[in-house]
Amino acid sequence: MRILTTDQAVLDHVAARREAIIGRTIDWANINSGSRNAAGLNAVLDALEAVARALPGAVVERIATQGSTTVADDGSVRTEAHADALKITARPEAPIQVVLTGHYDTVFPADSRFQTVTTRADGALNGPGVADMKGGISVLLAALEAFETHPDRHGVGWTVLLSPDEEIGSPASAPLLAELGARGHVGLTYEPALADGTLAGARKGSGNYHLIVTGKAAHAGRAFEEGRNAIAGAAMIAAALHGLNGQHEGVTVNVAKISGGGALNVVADNAVVRFNVRVPDKAAADWIDASVRAIAATPPFEGLTLDLHGGFTRPPKPMDAAQTALFEAVKEAGALLGQPIAWKPSGGVCEGNNLHAAGLPNIDTLGVRGGDIHSDQEFAWPDSFVERAQLSALILCKIASGEIDAAKLKSLRMETL
């Protein structure tokens, strides 16, 4: 693999747009788009759509997403609506199809005190979503803008999906990711890399559960024995869930929150136990799901009823043969650019888990170099915007030339699906 004259022209196209790639990231990050901030999400979607429509030959459409079920702190079950996804498509009839994904929501709610981008003394950008992942979306689009000038582009079709709900587990966009993953050959996803450029390799799977505990209210003084305390039951269930830790290698259970109850002189008749599980593989996922459901099937004492909601939102993403081969190809492309590419396993999850489960080999940390995401210290290094866009652009060039054999990678993945 080497950089050809036609490849270099693509790389130069990226470098010439450095200020625009960084500048639009700052503009987008200055618009709050917390996962449940409908107005902010729509404002960012408008901005993204305007840029997408400038891509030559691309078809741009807003895709309505499905509603999702949520459990409120009082135990009521509600349906939650979500913003549209943005789908951008070019050459869907081409023999090789690349799927590029990202999310335009952030973890910062509309009333967050962390709302604007600043530049730190060391030159890093500090702002909400600047790394996770409005910077990644800008890199994604820059790579495509440049690739569309390459003479071999016609053999490669691509689809971009920008979703509004990744930070809450992709409940609305999961079917869209599954559909794209099933028909694509290679996936590129733009979560941030680590500050030194290291990529995430194998990823654990993740499940989110909400267990509604219903008891019976009574006066805590006059008729305590007539009540059935849901909070006490929830605490006992939480202890049982925590006790699953250490029973199966690589599996963790985090009891995150117990809500419910009310006045101190009332026996609590409602509670909700919320917990997350992480697993290294499908066998572990099956074990923990069965264990959770067994606990949820038997109230800890008489008079309680239990109602379990949720489950796995992100299947495990192991380093199978397809993933290993793709990482090696990306490492070779990085070396041509003077970018050492390393990877390590991660307990975190993202859309790459969903794509892999649907049969798509993918690299899911092709975004900017940064760190401290999900905090008000979130940062991204400005030099990494061009650097990472050039890496993606070169990957696309090498897929087009066949030096990265996308069809073979897909075949390898299907062998282990």
Automatic annotation (TrEMBL):
Pfam families: M20_dimer (PF07687), Peptidase_M20 (PF01546). Keywords: Carboxypeptidase, Hydrolase, Metal-binding, Protease. The keyword Repeat does not apply. InterPro entries: Bact_exopeptidase_dim_dom, Pept_M20_glutamate_carboxypep, Peptidase_M20, Peptidase_M20_dimer, Peptidase_M20A. It comes from the Bacteria. One of its GO terms (molecular function) is carboxypeptidase activity. The active site is at D105, E166. The keyword Protease applies. Residues 202-298 form the Peptidase M20 dimerisation domain. NCBIfam families: PRK07338.1. PANTHER family: ACETYLORNITHINE DEACETYLASE, BLL0789 PROTEIN. This is Carboxypeptidase G2. It comes from Brevundimonas mediterranea. The lineage of its organism: Bacteria, Pseudomonadati, Pseudomonadota, Alphaproteobacteria, Caulobacterales.
